[in-house]
Design a protein that fits this description.
single chain, 453 residues, alpha+beta, Rieske Iron-sulfur Protein, 2 domains, nine-stranded mixed beta sheet, 14 helices, 24% strand, globular, binds FE2/S2 (inorganic) cluster, binds fe (ii) ion
Length: 453
């Protein structure tokens, strides 16, 4: 069996098949004309994940989200709703906030001349107002609004005047993600790496597992990437379902569990020696054991299928979010375009983890894969965003996990190669269908041919 690809509609009459076919050439990955067209037709038209709703719990809590040359300010209002506005003061255009998150008492105040705005963006106060002899029209000088919505604990924004409704854009994906209860998870790590690669080069990397045997050899002993199930949805979204707690079926099944699986068994309190000659039974055993441990330490697996308990499902949400979902931990990876250079992007990785409800019980921690994340969870403190360069990752001074570090090493070389006169177009296998689906939908957006239900 190899990777299965299928088109899946959202129940509306919007076809999951894109209307356009992309050409994956140098201009597509490096061109300034393409970069501008993406801004006009994608970044200002599609719904974008701007942040995590948990960062906006109380009135006055805010986050900023920078996308291409724009910066958006999202705030929890006094009434309990969300407001999103351009992060641009209406006096002379200064950024209201340069921090990525924070909290204000009742108003946003521009640091430059002190204009202040209510949490919903309306202009409240102009210092020395009488010196504006022609007057200041408060309604006209309020912050410019942006569409905003929250689903599954995530905050989306949309810069379009009349966007496709968020629920139509996400279709059945909201329901698919609901059992994971992202809204109960906490941010336990947030990292941003400045990369010498176009944002789409990053998307492509995380859309296929053809490269896994070559640059992530460690994966052969704990996941089955070869036989993944792929669903291709409308608007350019995809999902990839990969079995966990298994060995790579390309190779003979070993008698003993390989070291990574042995470690995973021990972490669950199971004895690897019990699986001598039974390596293919580990996945089922891990599912049962996780449910048992979950009941003990307050992890609720009841809404999840056995496959969801053990496996890794990766949702790529058009245009720029790669979400790796496990019941205990979710990674939101998000390449954002650089404001001026198509050869660069900002690559964010936000790690969410389900809270541990029973303190002092060591077995509860084993359900969280990343020890750093487990530490942050125990501290109860929301970590600051760490910002660094690609060279910091390749030199080993920062890590975004072993697997992602391996990807990051290659991304600038992919970018440089695709920007060379020696590159014509990419050719894709059936196991790279998610790349094809993404780019064909991207072209459909760029041609302004996105259907509405
Ligand atoms: S630019 Fe903001 S108060 Fe002047
Ligand atoms: Fe990879």
């Amino acid at each position: 069996m190899w990777q299965e690809n299928r088109f899946v509609a959202f129940g509306s009459d919007v076809s999951p098949q894109p209307a356009h076919r992309a050409t994956l050439n140098r201009e597509h990955y490096s061109g300034r004309a393409t970069m501008q067209k993406e801004f006009d037709t994608v970044w200002t038209k599609a719904w974008l994940i701007a942040g995590i709703e948990r960062d906006l719990e109380e009135p006055g809590d805010f986050i900023t989200f920078d996308i291409a040359q724009e910066s958006i300010l999202i705030t929890r209002t006094e009434e309990g709703g969300l407001s999103a506005v351009y992060n641009v003061c209406q006096h002379r255009g200064n950024r209201l906030h340069i921090e990525t998150s924070g909290s204000v008492a009742r108003r946003h105040t521009c640091p430059y001349h002190g204009w202040s705005y209510a949490l919903d963006g309306s202009l409240l106060h102009v210092p020395d107002r009488e010196r504006f002899s022609k007057g200041v029209d408060c309604a006209a000088r309020s912050l410019k609004p942006v569409n905003v919505g929250a689903r599954n604990g995530l905050v989306w924004i949309n810069l379009a005047v009349n966007p496709l409704p968020l629920d139509d854009f996400l279709g059945s994906l909201v329901g698919e993600l609901t059992p994971y209860r992202l809204e109960e998870m906490h941010v336990v790590r947030e990292q941003t790496c400045e990369l010498d690669a176009n944002w789409k080069t990053v998307i492509d990397n995380f859309a296929e597992v053809y490269h896994v045997d070559f640059i992530h050899s460690q994966h052969a002993s704990f996941v089955n990437c070869r036989d993944a199930r792929v669903d291709l949805f409308p608007y350019g979204h995809t999902v990839f379902r990969v079995d966990g707690y298994v060995v790579n079926p390309r190779y003979p099944v070993p008698d003993e569990p390989p070291p990574i699986l042995s470690g995973a068994l021990e972490a669950l309190g199971l004895d690897p020696r019990d699986f001598h000659g039974r390596v293919n039974d580990i996945r089922r055993a891990a599912q049962a054991r996780k449910r048992e441990l979950g009941r003990r330490v307050g992890f609720d697996y009841s809404a999840l299928t056995d496959d969801q308990v053990s496996d890794i499902w990766q949702y790529n949400l058009f245009p720029n979010v790669i979400m790796t979902v496990k019941p205990e931990e979710v990674w939101i990876m998000r390449p954002r375009p650089h404001p001026t250079d198509p050869q660069k992007c900002f690559f964010d990785k936000i790690t969410l983890a389900m809270p541990i409800r029973q303190s002092g019980d060591d077995t509860s921690l084993v359900l969280i894969g990343d020890p750093e994340a487990a530490k942050a969870m125990q501290s109860g403190r929301r970590p600051e965003r760490e910002v660094f360069m690609q060279a910091d990752v390749t030199s080993g001074s920062v890590s975004m996990t072993e697997t992602v570090d391996q990807d990051i090493f290659y991304l600038p070389y992919m970018q440089a190669g695709m920007n060379s006169a020696g590159f014509d177009t990419a050719v894709l296998s059936d196991d790279e269908n998610r790349i094809r689906h993404f780019h064909d939908w991207l072209s459909t957006w760029m041609a302004d041919r996105v259907p509405r239900p």
